[in-house]
Amino acid sequence: MESETSSGRVLQSVQRAFDLLERIATHPEGARLSELADGAGLNRSTAHNLLASLEGLGYITQDKKGAAYRLTGKLNRLLRLDAEAEHALRARIRPVLKNVSQASGESTFLAFATGTDYLCVDAVQSDQPLHLAVRPGERKPLIGEALGHALLAADPDLAHLVRADDPDRWERHAQEIADAKHHGFALDLDSQQAGISCVAVAVTPRAAIAVAGPTTRLPESRLITIGQKIREALDKVRPANQEWLTLNHSKAESQRM
Predict the structure, then answer these.
(1) Which of 1, 4, 105, 254 could bridge to 12 as Cys pair (CB 3.0-4.6 Å)?
(2) Which sign, positive or negative, has the C-alpha torsion 133, 138, 141, 143?
(3) Burial of residue 19, with CB atoms counted within 10 A of its CB: 0-12 exposed, 13-18 middle, 19 or more buried
(4) What does the alpha-carbon distance between residue 126 and residue 147 come to, in Å, rounded to a whole number?
(5) What is the distance between the alpha carbons of residues 218 and 222, in angstroms, rounded to a whole number?
(6) What are the b/e assignments for 60-95, b being 16+ CB within 10 Å?
(7) Residue 75, SS3?
(8) pLDDT, tens digit, for every residue of 56-83?
(9) What is the three-class DSSP state of 52?
């Protein structure tokens, strides 16, 4: 069935699905089937089918069957950062990249989560003759990379999306992601690229800093020290202006931080 609007025809099923999404969005702690159905003027069966479709697509979730429905972060990941927000975040982090690169002697870069990948948006290259060249514009999967693991450890909704997308690969790296959540930084000890190791720290649930270079210069003990130094550097810049931390987050995500 279709209805007429000022801009043309709207499929009733689509209209109802978005109505349910909007109602769930007004309940940060979640809303139950009966509440959503009654509020939208739908019978329970119709509402349940629409909600099941939205859940299957990853836009809403339940902690268990029969529990309240709540939004995931998937809707936010359909939106790109606006130029001003990205510039503000990069400008704020740029001095940290330079300082960390100078102190470690290795290449340092900033990346954003984009769907199930991450995208490098800024980098400071090491001046060592032998170093890892990281360039803005490079994109890699979140799973299997230290930077990706740092982001997955920092954002439960992103982790849920990525785990559902590739459960087998997730299980192979589940312990590394759990370790990143526990320690506050993620490590790659010569596992993804022969002779290269990396440490990564989340700046926000959607952005992270990484330092990478030859394993001969970056044994585990040094990576841990660098990871701790990055966290200290971020702690120093955060109090000056907390607003930059939330430029690429929804209001709900910001409150969760």
Answers:
(1) 1
(2) positive
(3) middle
(4) 18
(5) 6
(6) bbeeeeeebbbbbbbebbeeebeeeebebbbebbee
(7) coil
(8) 988 899 988 889 999 887 776 665 556 6
(9) helix
